[in-house]
Specification:
One of its GO terms (cellular component) is cytoplasm. With 221 residues, the protein is α/β, with parallel strands linked by helices. It has helices spanning 10-19, 29-35, 39-50, 64-78, 92-103, 116-125, 134-139, 144-157, 172-179, 190-197, 200-213, and strands spanning 2-6, 22-26, 54-58, 83-89, 107-113, 129-132, 163-166, 185-188.
């Protein structure tokens, strides 16, 4: 499974890019609001940090035609080097926008997906990615992982090229279980990525290795 960072915080992204094998960055209006900056200010910063990695930016327009204009504007601002995806919430207008965006040569991530069938319809419409919301499903006594696993199975069964970008995680266990579904990628907050890659026993083990080995290895510490 590939990891993406679900954040627009440039300090967090810089820190992650230092050591974490990130495949890209995703944002949504709520994530942007937490930064207190306009998209026009933050987009160039995200583009610079993303380099040739994926950058998924969510559309705010409600009408399909406007989503296409909006996505075109961002893609132009992102430039050729950027692997830009227009995140389209899967409303009636969102479904309509997918083939229009594809015809305009813009890659699409269908977002705010809560059911297996929404994902299949988005895939049939031509979405490159679908983003099912695991934690938000779990929060309404549904089963986020089960929804993802059904989507993964159907995409495999029907040999659909659309990939799954699982989203909305709050716990390490949710990420662990989504990985076992075989889903292609997941977008995860900075705090949770940090929790995934670390363990206190790793730190205590390294400390004791250093203590035991520092006088034995012929290299400067
Ligand atoms: C990413 O594409 C989603 O917008 C995001 O993961 C939603 O996460 P939340 O449910 O924690 O807001």
């Amino acid at each position: 499974m590939y990891y993406l960072a679900d954040t627009a915080n440039t300090e967090e992204i810089k820190k992650l890019l230092h050591y974490f094998p990130l495949q890209g960055i995703t944002t949504n209006p709520t994530i942007l609001a937490a930064e207190g900056k306009k998209l026009s200010v933050i987009l160039p910063e995200l583009v610079k940090l993303a380099g040739d990695k994926m950058l998924h930016i969510q559309m705010i327009s409600e009408k399909a035609e406007r989503m296409v204009d909006e996505a075109g504007r961002y893609r132009e601002q992102c430039g050729d080097k950027c692997d830009f995806y227009a995140k389209v919430p899967i409303t009636e207008e969102g479904y309509r926008a997918i083939p229009m965006l594809k015809r305009a040569g813009i890659k699409v991530t269908a977002t705010a997906i809560f059911t297996h069938q929404q994902a299949l319809v988005a895939a049939r419409a031509g979405a490159n990615f679908v983003a099912p919301y695991v934690n938000r499903l779990d929060n309404i006594s549904s089963h986020g992982i089960e929804v993802v696993s059904h989507i993964v199975k159907s995409f495999n069964d029907f040999k659909l090229p659309t990939k799954v970008l699982a989203a909305s995680f709050k716990t390490v266990d949710q990420v662990h279980r989504v990985t076992l579904t075989g889903c292609y990628s997941a977008t995860i907050s900075f705090e949770l990525l940090e929790r995934l890659r670390s363990h206190p026993m790793t730190n205590t083990s390294v400390e004791s290795f250093l203590k035991d080995g520092k006088d034995l290895y012929d290299i400067p510490f």
